[in-house]
Amino acid sequence: MLAELSDWFWQERLWFPEGLGWADLEDQDGRVYAKGRDLWAALPIALVFLIIRQIFERTVATPLASLLGVKETVRLKVPHNPSLESYYCKSSVASLSKQTGYSERQVQRWFRRRRNQDRPSLLKKFREASWRFTFYLLAFIAGLASLIDRRSIDSSQC
């Protein structure tokens, strides 16, 4: 079954334009092409990036946030109410106030607090934004570094 799934996934018609196939990617004449098995390298790299992100958020972004005055907001927890929970964002406030015995204002307050409970905190947003900034800045610098032609630098020094 696994072999059939693999054969289906690697069909030439899915990956190549008409007239080309896997045989065209075999190493020849000193040319070395990427192989499908090279994609497995992406998994450990992704895992490493997840670990680096966690370390970055804990050791750099969180202290930076406290230095800049970004604080974790304390959100009020709503009391557990099964009937309100089941109708969360699905029913009208008037009918819910009749079912629960709460006033309409209390039901609206419960819904507002429940909605706010699901929102990410300002600190979490800051950590994510700082990670993205750092990641894309480093990716940009690495891209620029890979574009530098060493031969043009060496020839200009002569």
Automatic annotation (TrEMBL):
Query: Which SUPFAM superfamilies has this protein been placed in?
Result: Homeodomain-like
**Alphabetized UniProt keyword annotations:** DNA-binding, Homeobox, Membrane, Nucleus, Transmembrane, Transmembrane helix
Q: Where are the transmembrane segments?
A: 129-148
| Top-rank lineage group of the source organism | Eukaryota
> Which InterPro entries does the entry mention?
HD (IPR001356), Homeodomain-like_sf (IPR009057), Lag1/Lac1-like (IPR016439)
Q: Which residues form the Homeobox domain?
A: 96-121
State the DNA-binding region(s). 98-122
Pfam families hit by this protein: Homeodomain
Entry's localization field:
Nucleus
Please tell me where this protein is predominantly located.
nucleus
Which Gene3D superfamilies does the entry link to?
Answer: Homeodomain-like
Protein name as it appears in the record? Ceramide synthase 2
Q: Which organism is it from?
A: Ataeniobius toweri
The gene is CERS2_3
